[in-house]
Recover the amino acids of this structure.
């Protein structure tokens, strides 16, 4: 037992199945010792549900502020297909495409989640997005800030825009997480989800 207490985070992640199915099965006793009794299938399932809750909460907030008009999967796919079609037309016309030229659903959701966050964070009229000078100063004081060519902590005047952006982003994430925590998942078919996750972890 003692020798497994100092196993690194990457090995724990590997044993949980965070990198997918292992090339060869891991001895169940060794896996249990490394993870301290944590069940990889349950961990993976809960992490996935937590990610989906966070994304759903972000979309609910986006809809409430008119950043998107449809948070359904069908709506997301439609926006992805429209963007892909527009990019194809630009490519055929020899125009420059910034970013990816084509998205699959996973990469599109990541792209849209970032865009929704940026749209919210960049709007000082949104709740929590117009911090006071005192709040900015306190956030600056609580974190390390560096710039090239400056020894030690950078002066607030040099990094104020970055401090505000970081504070707004943190507040946005807290707002989304608070909404996500209210999404009830108690009625999900957990046993079936665990069984499916087991096929992924191995």
């Amino acid at each position: 037992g003692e020798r497994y207490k100092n196993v690194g985070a990457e090995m724990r992640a590997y044993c949980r199945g965070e990198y997918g199915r292992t090339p060869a099965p891991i001895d169940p006793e060794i896996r249990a010792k490394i993870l301290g009794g944590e069940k990889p299938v349950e961990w993976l399932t809960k992490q996935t549900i937590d990610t989906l809750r966070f994304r759903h909460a972000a979309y609910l907030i986006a809809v409430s502020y008119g950043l998107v008009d449809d948070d359904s999967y069908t709506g997301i796919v439609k926006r992805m297909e429209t963007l892909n079609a527009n990019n194809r037309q630009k490519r055929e016309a020899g125009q420059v495409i910034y970013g990816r030229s084509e998205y699959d659903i996973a990469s599109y959701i990541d792209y849209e989640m970032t865009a929704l966050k940026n749209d919210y964070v960049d709007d000082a009229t949104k709740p929590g997005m117009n911090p006071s000078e005192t709040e900015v100063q306190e956030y600056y004081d609580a974190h390390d800030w560096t710039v090239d060519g400056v020894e030690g902590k950078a002066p607030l005047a040099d990094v104020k825009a970055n401090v505000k952006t970081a504070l707004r982003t943190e507040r946005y994430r807290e707002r989304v997480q608070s909404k996500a925590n209210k999404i009830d998942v108690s009625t999900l078919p957990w046993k079936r989800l665990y069984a499916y996750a087991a096929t992924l972890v191995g």
